[in-house]
Amino acid sequence: MKPASLSRCLLCDDASPSGLLCAPCTADLPTNPHACWQCALPLPQTGLCPDCQQHPPAFSRALAAFEYRAPLTALIARWKHQADQRPLHLMARALLDQLAIHYQQDDWPQALIPVPIHSRRLIGRGFHQTHQLARYIGKALGIPIDMTLLSKRVSGHAQQGLDRKERLRNLRGTFACDGNPTGLHLSLVDDVLTTGATANTLAELLRQRGAARVDVWVLARTP
């Protein structure tokens, strides 16, 4: 009888019974247990960060399962740039666990909106990563996905490496709200929340068109 192939950890390549991560690499994942309850910024203890106190964002709350640092960065890169779906399943399950805790005494959104990407980026990457994440989360929670409310009209320059002011300037006129979100409680779904500029721009668009509330769900938040 041919021996069964040995599953390997996605990060260190050691043996892994789950075929995802070994126990030490799982323990090394940078979770985000204490964070700003509005923008999910990692904090020493849960509360409201100084920036949200002085400049509240247009979204009501953001939740992130992890901090965006090693070794999680390698998992996200493997999913986004190598189209490996296994990291997505692992990270999305962790996000679902956080959502179940935080929405115990809160209303669930009525629809999930993947942060839109431009068609040029979609062609280059070959798949819409935020749609994949929203589909996974939406199926688990029984919440529909709305791909019609928001669109990205202008490709724009990459946001990576820009500070908050530069990101906001880069986003001007980039997105459009094409539908009617009046009275709806919605959640934007993205992979990583960095400065919050994109999420805030999209939440402002939705609120201006009548959305009652906008939340933000992400896999990871930058420290």
From TrEMBL:
User: What molecular functions are annotated in GO for this chain?
Assistant: glycosyltransferase activity
> Where does the record place the Double zinc ribbon domain?
8-53
Superkingdom of origin: Bacteria
Q: Which protein family is named in the record?
A: Belongs to the ComF/GntX family.
Q: Which Gene3D superfamilies match?
A: 3.40.50.2020
Protein name in the entry: Amidophosphoribosyltransferase-like protein
